[in-house]
Design goal:
Helix content of chain A: 25-40%
Radius of gyration of chain A: 20 Å
Number of strands of chain A: 14
Distance between the termini of chain A: 40 Å
Helix content of chain B: 40-55%
CATH superfamily of chain B: Thiamin diphosphate (ThDP)-binding fold, Pyr/PP domains
Oligomer: heterodimer
Strand content of chain B: 5-15%
Number of helices of chain A: 12
Order of helices and strands of chain A: EHEHEHEHHEHEHEEEEHEEHEHEHH
Largest sheet of chain A: 7 strands, mixed
CATH topology of the largest domain in chain A: Rossmann fold
Largest interface: A-B, 54 and 52 residues
Radius of gyration of chain B: 21 Å
Number of helices of chain B: 12
Strand order of the largest sheet of chain B: 4-3-5-6-10-9
Structural class of chain B: alpha/beta
CATH architecture of chain B: 3-Layer(aba) Sandwich
Chain lengths: ~325, ~375
């Protein structure tokens, strides 16, 4: 095992895949000469040269569409967005072109592209820069949506995403890039479409993904174990589309209780989509309604205290878990 | 470099591009004469295909239970009047390495690149035998094996895609070029600005062609573009940009040829406004009130445009040059008409896609996906 920051794990995945396949290139704002807005691509220009690590002007529609066009004819672009919030200006290229062109051509093209960058609330950036775009993309047939929650996830999932022949939406979070974690040495990939049961437990199934796992969910599990004697089965989704419904249902059949946690808005949020997949097949196994802990339904405020208050917290998760356990 | 130097340099680039030696499309050799006749034939094929499409669209079939069903559904945009542009492009197109990407008015270009009229008509009819298996329809004709990367239904959405295919051609050093077509309506989308700037910045081999038929759906150019000279809309991208007569297939070949030469030799993108006229409405539901006088008669511009019908122009030129006779054209037209009738007949008889097929072609991999 090697200890890596999450940003180093991402860089390592991209570097290995670019060494492996010359069709892979990296493009985005400030990825080359500036060494990455968040230093994810640091040193890659020097290593691969300007033909494969390419700076763009601030033109999200232009360069995301460039990536889709290049993928249609067989290149394997990695398109970095400085923030997934900025993809609201190029939604058409992702939703209409990346996701639909294969279908509308009757399967004549593949779109092997990876779009990646920071997603969600990343501390005091204000409403326009804090969008949780997972529920926008995870509802689109034709896309794969992946989200890592630690360094090993980041490396294994990103390598698989780059190698996959479908368009992958890869959702990181700026606040996770410094986090350190163990990453297996050597060639290491993780499957797409498979959730990770990261803690076995008997009393309740807790489902989450991405940044809230480390920020609030894992601490909540610790508090529940130590203070409440509740044995939590914790599932890290890793892939949001296609959803690994089977793993979730198997867990609920065992625990008979379920809580979903994300930082999205509740109505039409990511967790609502997960609920849609679970409520009917899980109904007969549930001893309580599934609870969904999400952010308040307001624009994301700038003020630190207000921002903290709108998001799921350890306390909110502990309360929800106790409620479904009738404790 | 001073601003004055920069302006001087750019106007030199522009002049060089517009005076460059054209590709060969004369009529002196037997091969050239044969190619000219083939081009006329393709123009006739496109026209007949489109006019018959108009008829099929407006003639629902009656089902055994007496109910009526549209043969062609959705939006359908005809190319009649603009044939010289697609056919001129096809004359320069190298299917082994070039790409064509298009907006939704894509029947003509697809036929010009060799799509079987039956495959195209079957797609309009939504049949399993259509080029896109009945999943695309009129606006989404694809034949990737011929370099035809599709019609695209969202106005301007294809402009960055053409940038991307050209980027791939440069990345792989194939010597190929991309023809990226758009209408005069598309140049007012934001993607136009982003893609043309990037194309020039990265010097990709893309030829951006605006087919200016004068009207974006029902909005005339005068009401949609502050700059009336649409070639000038590309003046901020440091790439050659010029107007051509899009109704003269020889002119189209010569002028597109300059852009092709420039792109193949690493000179980067060009922007050409091919001025033409759309004989039919924007789509099938368009009564073209904007072309009618207060008494309901056609405005004089329609009659004027018909005098510049690209097929008429080219037929006359070939006849005057002694390459083909009126009788031969008539015979050729009869053959083309038969071909289109056979395509319609076959498409009508073809099956709908199997209902289970609706789940296919969404993704390329199966999931869970584990790399090998």
């Amino acid at each position: 095992m090697a200890v890596m920051q999450l940003r180093e794990a991402l860089r390592s995945a991209m570097t290995e895949e670019m060494e492996r396949d010359e069709n892979v290139f990296l493009m985005g704002e400030e990825v080359a000469e500036y060494n990455g807005a968040y230093k994810v691509s640091e040193g890659m220009l020097e290593r691969f040269g300007p033909d494969r690590v390419i700076d763009t002007p601030i033109s999200e529609s232009g360069f995301s569409g460039l990536g889709v066009g290049a993928a249609m004819v067989g290149l394997r672009p990695i398109i970095e967005f400085m923030s997934w919030s900025f993809t609201l200006v190029c939604l058409d290229q992702i939703v209409n072109n990346a996701a639909n062109v294969r279908y509308m051509s009757g399967g004549q093209v593949k779109i092997p592209i990876t779009f990646r960058g920071g997603n969600g609330i990343a501390h005091q950036l204000g409403a326009t820069h804090s969008h949780r775009t997972e529920s926008i993309y995870a509802r689109i047939p034709g896309l794969i949506v992946v989200t890592p929650s630690n360094s090993a996830d980041a490396k294994g999932l990103l390598k698989s995403s780059i190698r996959c022949d479908d368009p992958v939406i890869f959702l990181e979070n700026e606040k996770m890039l410094n986090d350190k974690g163990d990453v297996p040495e050597g060639e290491f990939t993780l499957p797409l479409g498979v959730a990770d049961v990261e803690r076995q437990g008997a009393d309740v199934t807790l489902i989450s993904y991405g940044r809230p796992l480390d920020r609030v969910v894992r601490p909540a599990v610790k508090a529940l174990t130590e203070n409440e004697n509740i044995d939590v089965e914790l599932i890290n989704l890793r892939t949001l589309r296609p959803l690994d419904t089977q793993t979730l249902l198997e867990s609920i059949k065992k625990t008979n209780r379920c809580v979903i946690v994300d930082e999205d808005w509740g109505y039409c949020g990511m967790g609502s989509g997960i609920l849609f997949k679970l409520q009917e097949p899980a109904f007969d196994y549930l001893d309580a309604p599934i609870k969904y802990v999400h952010s308040d339904e307001i624009p994301v405020p700038y003020n630190h205290h207000l921002e903290e208050a709108m998001m799921p917290s350890v306390d909110k998760i502990v309360s929800a878990v106790k409620e479904v356990c009738y404790r | 470099m001073t601003v004055a130097d920069e302006i001087e340099k750019r106007s030199a680039v522009k002049k060089a591009a517009s005076s460059a030696v054209s590709g060969s499309n004369g009529h002196s050799s037997p091969a050239e004469r044969e190619a000219a006749i083939a081009r006329l034939r393709t123009m006739l094929l496109i026209r007949r295909f489109e006019e018959r499409t108009f008829y099929e669209y407006t003639s629902p079939r009656t089902l055994p239970d007496g109910t009526r069903e549209m043969k062609i559904g959705g939006f359908c945009h005809l190319y009649s009047g603009q044939e010289a542009i697609a056919v001129g492009c096809a004359a320069l197109f190298d299917k082994s390495r070039d790409y064509l990407i298009n907006g939704y008015r894509c029947h003509g270009h697809s036929l010009a690149l060799g799509m079987n009229p039956h495959t195209a008509m079957a797609e309009l009819f939504g049949r399993a035998t259509g080029c896109s298996k009945g999943k695309g329809g009129s606006m989404h004709l694809f034949e990737v094996s011929a370099g035809n990367l599709g019609g695209h239904g969202i106005v301007g959405a294809q402009i960055p895609l053409g940038l991307g295919t050209a980027f791939a051609q440069k990345y792989r050093k194939t010597g190929g070029v991309t023809f990226c077509f758009m209408g005069d309506g598309a140049i007012n989308q934001g993607t136009f600005n982003e893609a043309l700037n990037l194309a020039s910045l990265y010097k990709v081999p893309c030829i951006y062609v605006v087919e200016n038929n004068g009207v974006a759906m029902g909005t005339q150019v005068e009401r949609s573009s502050a700059e009336k000279d649409l070639a000038e809309r590309a003046c901020g991208y440091a790439m050659p940009h010029w107007n051509i007569d899009g109704n003269d297939v020889d002119t189209v070949i010569t002028e597109f040829g300059k852009a092709v030469d420039r792109a193949r030799s690493g000179g980067g993108p060009s922007y050409i406004v091919a001025n033409t006229y759309r004989f039919r409405g924007h789509s099938m539901s368009d009564p073209m009130k904007y072309r009618k006088m207060s008494d309901g008669k056609w405005s004089p511009e329609v009659e004027e445009a018909k005098k510049h019908d690209p097929i008429l122009l080219y037929s006359n030129r070939l006849m005057q040059a002694g390459i083909i006779s009126a009788q031969q054209i008539e015979a050729m037209e009869a053959k083309v008409n038969e071909e289109v009738e056979a395509a319609i007949h076959q498409a009508e008889a073809d099956p709908n896609p199997a209902l289970e097929d609706r789940f296919n072609d969404v993704l390329a991999e199966t999931y869970p996906y584990q790399p090998k």
